[in-house]
Amino acid sequence: MDSIVFGPVPSRRLGLSLGVNNVYNKYCSYSCVYCQAGRTTRLIIDRISFYDPYKLVEAVIREVEEKKPDVVSFVPNGEPTLDKNLGLEARLIKERISVPLAIFTNASLIYREDVVEDLLLFDIVSVKVDTVNEETWRKLNRPHPELSLEKILEGIINFSKKYRGKLITETMLVKNMNTSIEEYEGIADYLSNIRFDKAYIQAPIRPPAEKFVTIPDKDDFLIAYNIFAEKLGENRVEVLNYPEQPLFKFSENLVEEVLRTINVHPIRLDYLKYIADKRGANFEEILDKLLKTGKTMIAEYNGKKFIVPRRKT
Ligand code: SF4
């Protein structure tokens, strides 16, 4: 049960974020080409029960008390709203702690009333809007065939009318997939219909599911930013195309903590070395232990080496 809580990891948006991995690896309604958790193995849209919600909540509370994160985030290696116990878990956690509760969803099920009810319980909701173009959506996010982009986009607008917490949007740019002026204008026009707090434009900075995924050029981000800022206001747009600082807050059992974390959040080897050095541990030994578990491997991406879960390529 403990393996479903990881970190805290440094979040570029939220500070130190204790992660809750509330679905099994990798149950998702999308199989995004850039997913840092690898290809989706169970492409589903039915909400099901994953972990015992009471045990999940106990694990979260225990880690919050020990590690004192800035925020608790449901950010699994899959889609968090597939968990049919999500609302119960959010309610139970909020009864016990005052740390803000966040969720990062691809929003694919937001057309459902029960999903909206669950999301309304969170203090911070992040929704994915990589494109408003059906063809791009199918190629980039590779959704479950029964999903409809139109219903999702309409669902996000309806949700934003009801929601009183902090709503953020995430747009991941992948070179030559959604990096055109038409794409940027389409997304920005769409977002102008939504009551949101911040629109983040992101880059795939960690090893992606597909090798062909490439980080866009600086100019792509500049053009996207300018179009978003013009239509939405400068203070509501931010580009996140840089890595976070290596400020992970791990306990003494570094190998175990890294194993839990990389299921969702691959870690750069230079960061792992920084963390090991800081606590006087031997980096080579830690790396050796991680690789000998048979559960991890080293992946190279964009000139950097990462420790990631062992995957079929
Ligand atoms: S990036 Fe998120 S939505 Fe896309 S496949 Fe990965 S877990 Fe699912």
TrEMBL record:
Signal peptide: none annotated. Residues 8-243 form the Radical SAM core domain. Keywords: 4Fe-4S, Iron, Iron-sulfur, Metal-binding, S-adenosyl-L-methionine. One of its GO terms (molecular function) is 4 iron, 4 sulfur cluster binding. Its cofactor is [4Fe-4S] cluster. SUPFAM superfamilies: Radical SAM enzymes. InterPro entries: Aldolase_TIM, Elp3/MiaA/NifB-like_rSAM, GTPase_Obg, rSAM, rSAM_sf. Pfam families: Radical_SAM (PF04055). This is Radical SAM domain protein.
